[in-house]
Each structure stands twice: as C-alpha cells, then as structure tokens.
Amino acid sequence: MDNTVEERARLLGEYIAEEGATVRQAAQRFGVSKSTVHKDVTGRLRRLNPALYRRVREVLEINKSERHLRGGMATREKYRKLKVES
Q1: For residue range 63-72, what is the model confidence (pLDDT) as tens digits?
Q2: In whole angstroms, what is the distance from residue 19 CA to residue 56 CA?
Q3: pLDDT in tens, 25-83
Q4: What phi and psi, each to the nearest 5 degrees, are found at residue 31?
Q5: What is the 3-state secondary structure (H, E, C) of 22-49?
Q6: C-alpha angle 67/79/83, rounded to 5°?
Q7: How far is CA 38 from the centre of its chain?
Q8: How far apart (Å, rounded) are the C-alpha atoms in residues 76 and 2?
C-alpha cells in the first residue's frame, strides 16, 4: 500500500476525531470524495491505528444519530430563506 494513502487515512482520522467533523466535511477539507474518506477511516484506519479508529467510530456514530436533525434544520432554513425573498 502506498505510504501517502496510509498517511491520508491517519490525517483524516485525526481531523474527524479532533473536530467532530462529518464525512462530508472531511472530504471537502482534504479534497477527496466521501467514498474515499469512508474507506480510509473505516477500512484502512482499523488496521493502521485501532485506537484512532475507535475514536473516529464514536464521532461517526454520533453524526449518524444526528443526521436527521441536521437535515431537518437545513430544510427549515431553505424554506425560511425562500419566504423572506418572496
């Protein structure tokens, strides 16, 4: 495996764990796809750094449990802006 891929997995994991970032936020920050982030932090990181993997997994579980709330807030904000513009 390419060393840069391993390094990217570690950096993504650290970013998500420290910032509480979502997969989308990490993907945007590092200029890679959501699929790449997910593959790195769930597959590669599990083998490379199990302790960091567990920290990242906790953040991802929290994000997963809250995503319906963020979606609802985004929809509410969208329609609130449309109403103000009308």
Answers
A1: 888 777 777 8
A2: 10
A3: 999 999 999 999 999 999 999 999 999 999 999 999 998 887 777 778 888 888 888 88
A4: 70, 35
A5: CHHHHHHHHCCCHHHHHHHHHHHHHHHC
A6: 160
A7: 8
A8: 44
What distance in Å separates the CA atoms of residue 42 and residue 68, rounded to the nearest whole number?
A: 22
- C-beta of residue 5 within 8 angstroms of C-beta of residue 44: yes
Token code pair at residue 58: 């906790």
Task: Give the residue carrying structure tokens 């513009």.
Answer: 85
More confident residue, 61 or 3: 61
Q: How far apart are CA 17 and CA 20, in angstroms?
A: 5
Report how far residue 65's alpha carbon sits from residue 51's, in angstroms, rounded to the nearest whole number: 22
